[in-house]
Design brief:
252 residues, alpha/beta, Stationary-phase Survival Protein Sure Homolog, Chain: A, nine-stranded mixed beta sheet, two-stranded antiparallel sheet, globular, binds manganese (II) ion
């Protein structure tokens, strides 16, 4: 089995190495990851400049691009054959609720699923990883990865895994939750008297909605959310069709 391992925290992050070591117990694990921290770049693809990939150790490539670039380069340039699985992580910090839309970790898995390759994004709800948290995460991902490869996933669908820090009570299949937004931009003054703005200043947590990723992780469960790439709001389609401007004849 051939596995592509990537992340958005960068090629030197401990979570990436732990995940690659875990995947190496299942087959050949090749790392293709950003050469620096590219967290919150979302699904960005680099089109206006060339990319470089440096093999810093055998089977470990550092790319001066985004996580989505890494998946593209890995699959179409650096790996000898198409991987059976793409895993992204282990991210430092959770990727749940609305945060998923910013996540480079999740977007790397999304990119793989667009290419028809089964993919898993893995995040740990801690900034610094304890040995125990890493062990919980890697043990679970090894078993999940085996089942994903064996059973496959539906088209355009991938798995987003979030692991709690501390005691783990089990696993729950969840839905994407909802973040509560607070004062998101900090305004301050630099030493030369000019204003600067810093995004992401305060975190006020998540709505406690039963069945969601954040609800499960906050109660000490591993959350596994199946995500898909089609963003259509099916529930609003029928209502929208009845808007005067969109009805038959409408304004045209
Ligand atoms: Mn990250």
């Amino acid at each position: 089995m051939l596995i592509l391992v990537t992340n958005d925290d960068g090629v030197y992050s401990p979570g990436l190495r732990a995940l690659a070591d875990a995947m190496a117990t299942l087959g050949d694990a090749v790392i293709v990851a950003p050469d620096r921290n590219r967290s919150a770049v979302g699904h960005a693809l680099t089109l206006e400049q060339p990319l470089r990939a440096e093999e810093i150790e055998p089977g470990i490539f550092a790319v001066d691009g985004t996580p989505t670039d890494c998946v593209n380069l890995g699959i179409h340039g650096l790996m000898m054959q198409r991987p059976d699985l793409v895993v992204s992580g282990i991210n430092s910090g959770s990727n749940m609720g609305d945060d998923i839309t910013y996540s480079g970790t999740v977007s790397a898995a999304l990119e793989a699923s667009l290419m028809g390759i089964p993919a898993i994004a893995v995040s740990l709800n801690a900034k610094i990883f304890s040995e125990a948290d890493l062990l919980t995460t890697t043990r679970f991902i090894i078993v999940l990865a085996q089942q994903v490869v064996k059973k496959g996933l539906p088209a355009d669908t991938f798995l987003n895994v979030n692991v709690p820090s501390g005691p783990c009570h089990g696993v729950k299949v969840t839905r994407q939750g909802k973040r509560r937004y607070g004062q998101a931009v900090i305004v301050n003054e630099d030493p030369r008297g000019r204003k600067y703005y810093w995004i992401g200043g305060s975190s006020v947590g998540f709505e406690d909605i039963p069945g969601t990723d954040c609800c499960a992780v906050s109660r000490g469960f591993i959350s596994v959310t199946p995500l898909h790439t089609n963003l259509t709001s099916d529930s609003f389609c029928e209502t929208l069709k009845n808007w005067p401007v969109l009805c038959d004849g409408g304004v045209l």
